[in-house]
Design brief:
Its EC number is 1.-.-.-. This is NAD(P)/FAD-dependent oxidoreductase. Keywords: Oxidoreductase. InterPro entries: FAD-dep_OxRdtase (IPR006076), FAD/NAD-bd_sf (IPR036188). The protein is globular, with a radius of gyration of 21 Å. It has one domain (8-129, 183-436): FAD/NAD(P)-binding domain (3-Layer(bba) Sandwich). It is built from 10 helices and 17 strands. Strands 2, 3, 7, 8, 9, 10, 16 and 17 form an 8-stranded mixed β-sheet that branches. It starts with 7 loop residues before the first strand and ends with a helix. By secondary structure, it is an alpha/beta fold. Bound molecules: flavin-adenine dinucleotide. Flavin-adenine dinucleotide binds next to helix 1, strand 11, strand 15 and helix 9.
Length: 437
């Protein structure tokens, strides 16, 4: 391994080497459609596909190339996680909602796998399993109990890995054991988006790249959407802009905080190093508030590691240095490894930290995937589409709910995020210090 720059050679996603987002064949803007969709990531396209196959005319708009948002920038881990615990959801909503949310995670993940297979989407998907490392023995005990509960309640193959067996899963001494979930895997996110786009176009969705919706106005029983390419009328509107929500959806923008997530990718590592560090080529996570997610690239030759960015300081290299430190904390032998790529994208959090489908003034919104949209966005987009179609059972979801609460004093500039992130980092440091006592 050479020891050149500590930064990365490229500031674009590794995934774009094989599947760069690009222009879609230009289509004239229809005068009117049944449904207009704002955002052509996983959520918008999955919704568009469902609607088009049900016979609706659909126009999907994206301010960038379709997929250029989070849907071609993510880690590709099919985690389908929910941040709040079962108990916390029961407190905020009720016990039935907490149970339904947990069960829907399983259904949504299975839906994705079935979708990839029936639509023949080649995106390097492998159900590798995921190892989640524990910071200390207390955390390990709790994670082991949770894994047992998951196996009992939902029949998900999940089990604890004690510290002494940890090296079978990961070549680090950093954790005090962990848990494995066999139902999670990894895919190539940009290839997934490209496959979804192809299927949606073939179904008749009219996709308009580099066409931002600048305003949505009520017009009689329907809506008028303003774009630089002209105005379009729509009977129904679905907003799927998630972490890239702008002034066209002010109601959503006050309820959804965009957070930067950044990824680094190493140069190709020798096979014996990969065999030592990631012997089973599983997806990886950890029990910290600001934990890293990491994985081998689909060819098994590089390590990709991601985490939250803590702010927008003046030193643009600081976030890459921080991730590099995270990488070598886990794998000291990677000190000095070259990085081929580093980039960031935006995830979206709401105050409940739960994905959400809600309606306000006749517009339907589907967003708030809190960094786990590979599973949630296609699922929630599809459910939202069924809602617009008025389908009964297929429109059911635990995520249909009241709008998330607005974030106080927030109009689109997340000025408070650095303080939040510092708070989480402090909690992690305390947990770490306790685990080492
Ligand atoms: C670095 C990173 C790593 C991640 N890792 C994982 C992971 O490993 N596993 C996982 O499950 N999830 C992960 N995620 C989250 C996941 O990528 C997202 O939750 C998911 O892609 C969201 O899909 P979406 O369709 O809702 O939004 P997006 O893909 O972000 O699409 C929203 C689109 O809306 C468009 N838009 C916004 N406003 C307008 C407007 N006014 N007019 C027209 N278009 C507009 C934007 O241009 C954008 O393309 C990660 C995200 C990031 C950024």
């Amino acid at each position: 391994m050479s020891n050149t720059s500590i930064l990365a050679e490229k500031a674009s996603p590794y995934w774009w080497e094989a599947a760069p987002p690009g222009p879609v064949p230009a289509q004239p803007l229809a005068k009117s459609v049944d449904v207009a969709i704002v955002g052509a990531g996983y959520a918008g396209l999955a919704a568009g596909l469902t609607l088009a196959r049900a016979g609706r005319s659909v126009a999907a708009f994206d301010a960038m190339h379709p997929g250029e948002g989070a849907s071609s920038r993510n880690g590709g881990i099919t985690s389908g996680s929910i941040r709040p615990s079962h108990a916390a959801i029961a407190r905020t909503f009720d016990e039935a909602t907490a149970n339904a949310v947990e069960a829907e995670g399983k259904t949504a993940r299975e839906f994705l796998y079935e979708f990839l297979s029936t639509e023949n989407i080649d995106c390097d998907f492998q159900k590798t399993g995921l190892f989640k490392g524990a910071l200390g023995y207390d955390q390990y005990d709790k994670m082991a109990r949770d894994a047992e509960g998951l196996a009992k309640r939902l029949g998900i193959e999940s089990y604890a890995v004690p510290y002494k067996e940890q090296q079978q899963y990961i070549g680090t001494d950093f954790y005090r054991g962990g848990v494995v979930r066999k139902d999670i895997g990894g895919l190539h996110p940009a290839k997934f988006h490209a496959g979804l786009l192809k299927v949606a176009l073939a179904a008749g969705v009219s996709v308009h790249g580099h066409t931002p919706v600048t305003a949505i106005r009520r017009d009689g029983a329907g809506f008028r959407l303003q774009t630089p390419a002209g105005t379009i009328e729509a009977r129904q509107v679905l907003v799927c802009s998630n972490g890239y929500t702008d002034g066209a959806a002010p109601y959503l923008r006050r309820r959804l905080v965009p957070v930067r997530s950044r990824i680094i990718v190493t140069e190709e590592l020798p096979p014996e190093v990969m065999d030592r560090l990631m012997p089973q080529r599983m997806m990886m996570g950890e029990g910290r508030q600001l934990g890293h997610y990491y994985r081998p690239t689909p060819d098994g030759r590089r390590i990709l590691l991601g985490g939250r960015e803590s702010g927008h300081g003046t030193d643009a290299t600081a976030p890459i240095r921080r991730l590099r430190r995270g990488l070598t904390e886990l794998f000291p032998e990677l000190e000095g490894v070259r990085l081929s790529h580093s980039w960031f994208g935006r995830v979206a959090m709401n105050r409940d930290m739960l994905p959400r489908i809600f309606e306000k003034d006749g517009i339907l919104y589907a967003s708030g995937f809190c960094g786990s949209g590979v599973v949630w966005a296609p699922w929630v987009g599809t459910r939202a589409a069924h809602r617009l179609l008025g389908s009964g059972d297929q429109a059911r979801s635990a995520f249909f709910s009241r709008p998330p609460a607005a974030v106080p004093l927030y109009r689109g500039n997340p000025w408070f995020m650095p303080a939040f992130i510092k708070g989480y980092a402090l909690q992690d440091r305390i947990a770490w210090w306790r685990s080492k006592r």
